Each structure stands twice: as structure tokens, then as C-alpha cells.
Amino acid sequence: MNHSRRQFLVGAAGLTAVAFEAGTAFAGPQAGAIDAARPAAGSDEARAPAGREPFSVHSADGTILAGEAQGDPAAPEILFIHGLRQSRLSWDKQFADPALKNFRMVGFDLRGHGDSGKPASLDAYSDADRWADDVAAVMEALKLRKPVLVGWSLGGFVAGAYLRKYGGSQIAGVNLVDAVTRLSLDLLTEEAATFTRTTTSPDLSERTAATADFLAACFHQPPTGSDLQRMLVLNGMTARAVNEGFVRTTTTDLEPVFKEFAGPILLTHGRHDRLVKLAMSERIKALRPDSRLSIYADSGHSPFYEEPARYGQELAAFMTIANRG
């Protein structure tokens, strides 16, 4: 067992209990239609942290998307889109950040992740328009007027898929965080390419080990304690079909979409990212010289988690720029 995996598994003795609780999570699209309705008291979704409003909406293909919103509906809006094998809980530090308290913040579990529906069809994940429709469904159900899209890792692809299908007229700006904007082996690390195979392995032992290793690779400053336990559970909840379907997508280059987007772009990237090379963000910067590239010297793939105070301040400043006029 390598050092990173050992570090991630230390203290995880209570993981079984956490996993059992997670196993009661929302099962998927077969549940009742509850578009934007408040869940029943006592349900998993109703147990959102204080101040957050849980919601569930249907996407265009019937997939149910679970999420949470916080803040004044009249305030400038941020729509957070998480990365592969993660969830809306990835943004907990942002939802608790005083620097962001004056904004309406919305996060949701991508299809195949967390409490959202998990279609079995690989087409549900290979078709970029499905991801785009998910963003549109959340925006419509929550009556978001003109949010800033924050796309982390896979979330950057999802944000680009939305812009590709729906255009940018309803988007105030885009923050790409260690984002995947072009599926190219020279822009992703060899480690990332390996995880494409190992995290979808039919061998349960290999897949389990790879899940822990993938999570470790997301950080330069790794999480510990309950944060680690929760992240491991959430990674394990992700449908195998997500990876298997996504790698089959024919939409491999979203750089032209971001070049054509008329709004402002903030590029956030961790210096020690083990999955997405800095060159990915640098290419967007070259295409959009008016964008800002902010490199986090003490972060890996997750700068918003590893250096949250700086990230919150920079996102708040970007919100001011994006919402001018």
C-alpha cells in the first residue's frame, strides 16, 4: 500500500457507519416527481445544514437532480458544478464562507453522483447535451436569473456543454477550477488516464483501491477525519457508468465555446494538480487574454478546498466584475 493511500485510510474505522447512512440516499429517477418541491420532513434531503434549502428537479431526460440553495434569491447567483466522483458537499467551505455570504449559492449533485439519479445507460453520460440539460433544469427550477457558473474538473466540461447548447446570454461569468475543457492526453496526466481504467474495473478489489487513490490524487493538502470519511463514501456512491460513458463522448473540445463566450472568465488552478495539467487552463488563458489565471501554490486539484480563504475572496471579487451593469 503506497503512502498516499495509507494516509487516506488511517482513521477510517468509522467509515462503515457513514457508508450505511449514505446507503439510504436518494435512489434515482424512479422516485416520485417532486420538481423543485421541498422534501418531506425527516427525509435525507430535509436534513440539509441550517440555512440551506434542499431541492430536487427533473432534467430533460427524467433524471432527478438533488441539490441545495442558500442565500437571498434576489442576490447575485453562483451555481457550483462539482467534479467527477464528488458531490454538492464539495462546496461546503464556500457555503460557510463569510466572503460569499451576500450571494445566492446553489449546488447540485451531477447525474450519477450523490443523491441524484443514476441512469444505467452509458449514453446518459457520453452525450454532452444531457449534462447541459441538467444545468438548464436547475437554473429554470430555481429561477436563476444570470448566475456565475463555477465548474470544477468535470464541472468545467459540464459548464462548457451548457454554453455549447444554450449559449451564454443567461450566464454572468464562468470560473473554471482545474477544469477539463478539452479531452486530450497531453493535457491530462498519466495518473488521470490510469484512473479511467481502474476506477471502472470489474474487479471490486481493484476498483475499491483505485477509488481511494483517486481521492488522494485530488489534493496536495489532503483532508482528514470526517471530511475524509465523507468523501470516500461519496466517491464510492458514484455510478460506474459515469466514467464508462463519459470517456465515450464525441464532444472532446470545448475550448471554442469558452473563446466565444462574451462574459468574464476566472481560471483557478492548483500548482500541484496530479490530474489536470496547468496547460489546460493556460490554453483557455491564451484563447481569452482578457481572462484571469490564478495559480494556487499550495494546492492540488482542489484549490477551493485547500486554500478556501483565498478562493472565497477571489470568487467574491469576480462576482463583482461579472455582475457589473
TrEMBL record:
<dbReference type="GO" id="GO:0016020">
    <property type="term" value="C:membrane"/>
</dbReference>
<feature type="signal peptide">
    <location>
        <begin position="1"/>
        <end position="27"/>
    </location>
</feature>
<dbReference type="Pfam" id="PF00561">
    <property type="entry name" value="Abhydrolase_1"/>
</dbReference>
<dbReference type="InterPro" id="IPR000073">
    <property type="entry name" value="AB_hydrolase_1"/>
</dbReference>
<dbReference type="InterPro" id="IPR050266">
    <property type="entry name" value="AB_hydrolase_sf"/>
</dbReference>
<dbReference type="InterPro" id="IPR029058">
    <property type="entry name" value="AB_hydrolase_fold"/>
</dbReference>
<dbReference type="InterPro" id="IPR006311">
    <property type="entry name" value="TAT_signal"/>
</dbReference>
<keyword id="KW-0378">Hydrolase</keyword>
<keyword id="KW-0732">Signal</keyword>
<dbReference type="GO" id="GO:0016787">
    <property type="term" value="F:hydrolase activity"/>
</dbReference>
<feature type="domain" description="AB hydrolase-1">
    <location>
        <begin position="78"/>
        <end position="308"/>
    </location>
</feature>
<protein>
    <submittedName>
        <fullName>Alpha/beta fold hydrolase</fullName>
    </submittedName>
</protein>
